[in-house]
Every structure is written in structure tokens, then in C-alpha cells.
Task: structure prediction
Amino acid sequence: MPDRICVGAIAGAYGVRGEVRLKSFTADPQAIADYSPLTSEDGTQSFTVTITRPINNGFAARLSGISTKEQADDLRGLRLYVSRDKLPSLPDDEFYHADLIGLVVVDTGGTELGRVKSVQNHGAGDLLEIHGPNLKSTVLLPFTHEAVPTVDLAAGRIVADPPDGLF
Amino acid sequence: MSRSVWKGPFVDAYVLKKAEAARESGRNDVIKIWSRRSTILPQFVGLTFGVYNGHKHIPVSVSEDMIGQKFGEYSPTRTYYGHAADKKAKRK
Result:
């Protein structure tokens, strides 16, 4: 499980009064402000985010400690992280993508199939994209009770019972 | 112009045959299909199709609310990953 999760990035300055262009990666884009304070990747910088208005491809926002356009320009490209503990806990059978990515996938016999590379949803339910050393390309596994009977976040593994013809 | 109602929904014949065979066998196989243009029919509910996107077969578990749509709508042809951030996945 990752300690910190990237929830946004700064695309540059917005205007001349120290506002920034903020790109949000959260499911509800406005929710990025609720996770304040956000930190840089190395944790040395910390900002309280206040969204001022929506703009094309993101938000105009004011960050604590940033009051001039020059300071805002210097932050261009900075990724904003939040501690994993700050995300609210979820009910059973719901998982954060960030928690699932990287888990080891084993079949019911204990043989390792690969690791979760990403979680996708194209409208017909969630899919785990699995990448393994013995696979020519990635495999998409439906995230259902039948195909994925066990998700053990503490042990860092998923037990899969994939339908015939997937692997 | 929309399709005439008297014709009924369009489905490639081989999709119907494969779905029927899968339902009769009772096995939980992924039914590989290339027909993105076929309409999802009520008898497909509960089956899992692997819908080709030009690169690989994307698993599509058919549910009731998908009836009347086309298979291709659930198998995107372009890759977009995005960021995980606080996005959630629900096991059904």
C-alpha cells in the first residue's frame, strides 16, 4: 500500500496575482481541496489549497504561501500528494485503485500470475489489468466475486479464479 | 436515420450461436467475439464476452442495464490510463 497518493499537479501560474492552474486527478475534481494540506513528492513543501474558480482543464486555485506570479511559476509541474491515511475508509468490497495497483495476483493453486498494473472501467464493471513475466501482453480480469474471490491488502495479494480462456 | 423496428435488433449470427452454446454448457468461459456492432440482447445477461478492440479482447460482463447497447461501446479502442488518485473499484 503506498504511503502517499498523487491527487493533482500544478500546471503553472494563473493570472498575475499568485494564483495557480491546478489539475485535479481525483474522482470528483473539486474534492482535491478537501484533502488539504497537500505536499510535494518529497514532502518538503506543504500547501493549503483553496479553489477560486473552474477554468479550462482544471481549476484556478490559491496556495498558502504563494502570493506572486513568480512563485506560482516556479511551482509549474509540481505534483501534489496526500497521505494515504487521509482518504476515508471504504465499505467492504470497495477498494481504492491505489491500494490494488501493485498487488501480487495468484491463482487458486498458489501459482503467481502477475501483478496488478492498473484498474480500468469501461462501463461494464471494473477490470484489473494484470502484467506478468509469463504473459505476452497484459490481461484484463473482471473484478467480480467469481473471478477474484479474495483480496488480501495486508498480505499484498489477490487470489484469482479467472474464467477459462483469459490466461 | 434509425433502424426500422420491424427488423428487430441486429446481432451477428455467430454471436448468438456462441452465446447459446456457452449458456447450454454452463461453463464460465469468456466468449471471444469480434462483432462490436452486435446489439446486447436480454439472453446475454450474466455471460462474459471478450470484445475485440483491434488489439485484444476486453472482458465485458453483461448486466441488465446494458441491453440494447452495442458490444463495442464497452471495449474502447484507445488507451487512456489517467491517475489512480482516490478512485474506487467495487467488486460485484
In short: The two ends of chain B are 37 Å apart (CA to CA). The CA atoms of residues 20 and 43 of chain B lie 9 Å apart. The interface with chain A takes residues 27-30, 32, 48, 50, 56, 58-63, 66, 73-76, 81-92 of chain B (CB under 8 Å).
